[in-house]
Amino acid sequence: MATDSDYDVVVIGAGAGGLNAALLLARARRRVAVVDNGQPRNAPAEHMHGFLSRDGMSPSAFLEVGREEVVGYGATMINAVVDDLVAFDGGGFTASMDNGQVLRARSVVVATGLRDELPDIPGVRDRWGRDVVHCPYCHGYEFRDQALGVLGVSPGSISHAQLLRQWSADVTLFAHTLDLSDEDRATLAARGIEVVDGAVAEVVVRDDAVRGVVPADGDLVARSVVFVVPRMVPRDALLTKVGCAVGEDGWVTVDKAGRTSVPGVYAVGNVIDPKAQVVTAAGMGCAAGFAINFDLVQQDIAAAVAAKTS
C-alpha cells in the first residue's frame, strides 16, 4: 500500500523543466512530488525573454504561476533540498532530503540546473543579472545600441563579442586572460569591435549602475553593460551518484526524452544542457513527462499481467 512518502515520480528542481514535467505527469493522474528550495539560477534577473506569450515576465512570477498550476492538478510541492538519491533493489529510488524526510519513487526527474562560476573581478558579482550579464538572446535587445563590454575570461568570449555586434555598433572586448591571435584581431577589427589588452582590474559601479571597465594598467573605459561568459558547472551530483553516464564533454548524456543511462532516471534543463533557455527547458520537461508516463504504463501492464498469471 502506498504511503505519504510513496510517489510515481519525484521531480528534483522546480524550474521550467521540472515544473513542466510535473505538470504533464500530474495531468496524467500520476502521484508526483516536486522538491525545490526556491533559489533558481535566474533569480537576479528582472525579466525573461524568448518565451512566446511570456516574454518580459519576471522569472519569479513565472515560477509562481507554474507552481500553482502543478499543485492545482494534485502534485505535492516540498520546500527542501535532496541530499541523496539511491536506486534500490527491485526497482525504484529513494530521495533523502535535508529536512530528514525520505521519499520513494518509481521514477525520478533531475532538474537541478547549473551554477555560474564568475571571474574574481570586483563589481562582477554585485551586478550579476542586472547590467553584468551573460546571454545576448536574453538581454541583448534591452541593451541594444548601448556601449557594451565583453570580459575575455574564456575563448568563447571572442565569439560572444562578435555575436553582440548584432545588437550594438559599440562593442569592446577586454582581453583580460585571452591570448588573441592575429586572425582574432583581424576579424574583430573588421566588424569594428575594439580590443583593450591587459588584465581587467575592476568593473566600476556608481549610483547603482555599471559605469565602465578599468584595465589593470589603464584608465576607465566607459561601458554601460558588461557581458561575461561564466564557467558553467552542472549540479549533477545526484545523477552521477546513481551511475548516469557522462559524455566526453563532462555532461550527463540523455536521449531526446531526457532518459539517462539509468532506467527510471531522467534529466532536463541546464543540468544536462548549458545552452537551454527557459522555453527550451520547459519543452524538455514536457518530453520527459510524456516518456515517463509511457514507461510507467508499460510497468503497470507487466504488473497486471503478472498478477493475473500468479
Q: With helices defined by DSSP (H or I, 4 residues minimum), what is the helix count?
A: 7
SSE run: EHEHEEEEEEHEHEHEEEEEEHEH
Tell me the CATH topology of the largest domain: FAD/NAD(P)-binding domain
- Distance linking N and C termini: 19 Å
By helix and strand content, what is the structural category? alpha/beta
Radius of gyration from CA coordinates: 23 Å
The largest β sheet comes out as:
7 strands, mixed
How would you describe what is shown here?
- The structure is a single chain.
- By secondary structure, the chain is an alpha/beta fold.
- It has two domains: 6-116 and 231-309, FAD/NAD(P)-binding domain; 119-227, 3-Layer(bba) Sandwich (FAD/NAD(P)-binding domain), CATH 3.50.50.60.
- It is built from seven helices and 17 strands.
- It has helices spanning 16-27, 59-72, 136-139, 156-164, 182-190, 237-241, 278-309; strands at 6-12, 32-36, 76-79, 82-87, 93-97, 102-110, 114-117, 132-133, 148-151, 171-174, 194-196, 200-205, 210-215, 221-222, 225-227, 231-234, 265-267.
